Amino acid sequence: MSAKKHYQLYDPVWLQDAYTHATTRQIAKQLGCHPTQVTRALHRLGIPMRPAKRMGPPKLYDAAWLAETYAHHTTHEIAAMLGCGQSSVCKALRRCGIVLRHSGGRLRPIGPDRYGKDSDGRYRRIYRLMIEQQLGRRLTPEEHVHHIDGNHSNNDPANLVVLLKHVHHQTHGKLSEDNVREIRRLIATKVTTQAALARRFGVDPGHISHIVHRRNWQHI
Prior knowledge:
By secondary structure, this protein is mainly alpha-helical. The chain has helices at about 1-5, 10-20, 25-30, 35-45, 65-70, 75-80, 85-95, 125-135, 165-175, 175-190, 195-200, 205-210, and strands at about 115, 125, 145, 160-165.
């Protein structure tokens, strides 16, 4: 029934002529069928298809330019440069295989001294790449890289050591077991906030959250 109704899709001369002057969508509208049927007919009859029309600024299709620019700017800044939406930049990065970086749900710029490309062409923290090169394998998500002197800009191999995630958090927290018990007690009684406790103990608010939800210091 489909062949009789849309017999033009089986006529190479007609279809070639129609496709010279119209798009697959326009041909489908003319015949009263779906554009996919027109595309399949073109393939079946060996009629070469035109490259799909690229939408948006040409730079969004330049993988090398995107990778280099994204190493120093946020997606919001790139969108402003190109005069397009931030979502278009994000889609272009994914299409080119460039992994989006996040910090608290917000994108942030990164420099070449902090991130580098791995074997898959993805941007990752440079100190993780250095440790992986030394070990000859990839680190697992549970393995963190600790800077011995506390300076995250000092990526000297002698200053880097691999720690398990919970040990790394405890190392940075510099809290005693009594401190941890006190934090949990205060949060349970709702007399203060996690942000206030972070300021009081001189640690990151995220560390307080991990303690409260027992992602760290689970043995207490």
